[in-house]
Amino acid sequence: GRCTIMTLSFFVLVVTCMLSTLHLTIKGELIAKPTGLVGQFEPLNISPITLSPPPQSSPPSISTNNDDGDPSPPRKEADDDMPKEIKRLRKYVLRKMQTKMPQCQFPYTYIKQTQTTSSQNSDDHVMSEDEMRDLPSIILMHVSRQILKYTANGQNIATDIVTEKDKNGRSIHVRRDVIMGYNYLLTLQVTNKSEDIDWTYELGIFKDKAGMYSVFKCARHPSSPPTSSLGEDKDTQQSNEIIPTAQSNDNDDHTPLSSLNIVCYNIWNYNKGWDLRKTLLAQATTSSRMGLPNIIGWQEVRYSDHPSRDRMEDRERWGGSRSQAIALLHELHHATGKNYQFIFQPAMMYPAHMPHYELEGLAIFSLFPILESSHLALSRDLHDTGDEHQRICLRARVQSPIGDIDIFVTHMSLSDRAQQRNIVEIYKYMNSFYHPHPHDDDRDTSDEPSTSDAANEPAEPAAAAASRRASTVPQVLLGDMNGEPNAIAIQFITGKVKLQDITSDLQDAWEQHNHGERVCDASGQCSGNGVSPGYTFSTLNEKLTKRIDFMLFRGLSLQDLQLIGDVPHIEQRKGGDHEEEEEEQHDKTFPSDHLGMIANFKFENN
pLDDT value at position 231? Predict the structure, then answer.
C-alpha cells in the first residue's frame, strides 16, 4: 500500500511539473496556450527552373487524389538533380497556373492551353507551333524559406521528442525544434507575349504541419517596360485583371484615379457564423458611399488545419477555405469581379482540438501591385498577463496609379504597458521607411550611424528639401489598437504626448473627419467638440461603447471617412410552440464584432 501511495505521489509530482512548464507533449503533439511563431527567411540554393512551356509528352494535369492537391510531376527526366522540396513547390505552382482563382491569376493563355490539353486525356497530344508560340515563358528565379518554429516567449524555441530512423534503419528518439510549418517566397519571371510586357510575380506558399499547401501572398509588378510606342495609351498597355488600370472609385474604368479608398477591419476570426459573415464582410467593404476599396487592412485573420474549416467544394475551386484570407478574396471577387493582390502574415498560434491548430495574423489586400512587404515582431513581456499573445506589424508598399504608398497594419496587445512599448516600436519601424524624417529633433537616433562632421555640412537648399518632401512615400497605419483615444499609446501616436522623448506626427483620420474628439460615458454624458464618438466596438448585443479601431496617416490629405458594417443581416424565424405564441423573432448577424472604416485619401503632392 505504501509503495502504491509513493508511486501515485511521484506520478502526481511529475504531472504537476510538466503542466507547470510552457508546453506538454503527448504522442508527439504539442499542447499550449496561444503563443508565437518565429523564423527568418533564408534563400534556397537553386538554379532558375523553367515552368512553362510544359513538355509535350506529359502536360500537367490537376489531381485531387493527393492530400495536398498536387498534380503529377510534368517532367520526370529533369527531376533527378532537383531537391524534393523544390519539386513539390513546382508541382503546386503548376496547379495554381491551371486554376482560375482570385488570389493569383497567371496568364490566361497558359491556363486556357493547359486546361484544353488536360481535358483531352491524351499523353501524346502535341501542341501546334501557333499554340507553343502563344505560351508565356515562366521561370522560377528564386526561392526563400521561413521555418515557422514554435515559441512560447518569442525567443526560446520549444522542443519535442520525435522518433526517427538512424542510418541503419533503427528507430531512435531525438529532441527536435517544434516546427509548425514552412513559408516559401517564390520569385517568378513571366514573359507573356500577348501582353508585350515582362512581369515579376511574388508568390508566397505556406505548407502546414500536415503537409497541406495554401497561398499566403500573391503580387506582381512589371519587371520591364512595355515595348509598345510611348505614344500609346497607358491604360491600353497594362489592362489586365490582376492589376487594374487607373480607376475612379465608383468603378468607372475610364476615369483616371485621383484618390485612394482604404479600409481597416477586424474580422473576428472564425467566431459565430463565419460562412455568413465572410459574405457580409465583402458586402460591407464594397458598398460604402465612396465605392470599392483600393486597399484593405485586415486583423484577426486565421488559417486553420482543422477539417471542419474546410469545405471540399471550396477547396477544389479556390485553394482551401481553411484560409480566411483566401475566403475573403473569393467573396470580394464574387461581389465585384475584381482580383486583389494580397499578403497574409501569421503572428500567433492557437491550439484547436489538438492535434489541430490555427494561425492568426494580419493581411493586406490591394487592387494595385504590392512591390514589397515585410513585418516587425513586436516585443513581449512574459510577466505581463495581458501580453501573452505575439503581436506584429505588417507592411506592404503599394504601387498605385497616383503614387506609391506604404500600408502598415497591426493588432495591439491588451496590456497598457505593452501598448506603450509596442507603439513606439511601430513608429520607429514606420520611420525606417519614411524619408525625410519630419521631426529630426524628436526622432530616436540611437541605432543610426554617427557622423562626426554632420554639423559642418552645408544646409540643404530649399528647392532640394522641397523635392525630397515631394518624393516621400505617404504612410497609413491601420489597426485594432485595443486602446481608446485617451490611452497613452494612442495619445502618443496621434502626437499629443511624448514617449521615449519621441513625438509622432501621424494624424487620426476619425478625429480629423469628426472635427475633434467626442467621448461619452455610460450615463450618456458626452464631452468634446466632435460630432460623434465614432465607436467601433462591440456589435455584440448592439452596444457600441469604445473607439479602439484607428486609421492614422501622414503625407496624405483626408477627403472622406465612413464607418461600415453597422447594418446586420436579419433572419426571421417563428418562435413558440403554440399558435398564439408564434411571434416572429429576428436573428441578427453583423459582419464582425467590430465596425470597419473606409477613408478616402488624396496625395498631398497631387
Answer: 32
pTM above 0.70, yes or no: yes
Supply 552's cell numbers: 492614422
Contacts 24+ apart (CB under 8 A), 437-440: 438/505, 438/554, 439/503, 439/505
Q: What is the pLDDT of residue 73?
A: 41
Q: Where are the alpha helices (DSSP H) in 170-268?
A: 234-237
| pLDDT beyond 60 at 249 | no
Q: What is the DSSP string of 102-144?
A: TT-PPPHHHHHHHHHHHHTT-TT----HHHHHHSPEEEEEEEE
pLDDT at 388: 84
* 8 A C-beta contact, residue 606 and residue 296: no
Interatomic CA distance for residues 320 and 311, integer angstroms: 8
Overall size of the chain counted in residues? 606
Residue 601 pLDDT greater than 60, yes or no: yes
Cα–Cα distance between 368 and 107 in angstroms, integer?
17
Residues 387-400: pLDDT tens digits? 888 899 999 999 99
Residue 128 and residue 351 in contact, taking contact as beta carbons nearer than 8 Å: no
pLDDT of residue 479: 97
| Alpha carbon distances (Å) from 576 to 137, 571, 582, 583, 589 | 65, 16, 5, 7, 21
317 by DSSP, 3-state: which? Answer: helix
pLDDT of residue 101: 52
- If one compares 389 and 2, the residue with the highest pLDDT of the two is 389
Please give the backbone phi and psi of residue 216, each rounded to the nearest 5 degrees, phi first: -115, -10
- Residue type for 212, please? M
Q: What is the pLDDT of residue 576?
A: 55
Does the pLDDT at position 129 exceed 70? Answer: no
At 580, list the grid cell.
Answer: 398564439
Q: H helices within 259-395, ranges in order?
A: 274-286, 312-318, 324-336
Give the C-alpha separation, 215 to 196, whole Å. Answer: 27
Contacts for 93 with CB less than 8 Å, ≥ 6 apart: 51, 140, 186, 188, 203, 205
CA distance 103 to 83: 27
Among residues 539, 540, 591, the alpha carbon closest in space to that of 281 is found at 591
CA 561/CA 565 separation, integer angstroms: 13
What percent of the chain lies above the pLDDT cut of 70? 61
Chain CA centroid to CA 19, Å: 34
Q: Which residue has the cell 487524389?
A: 65
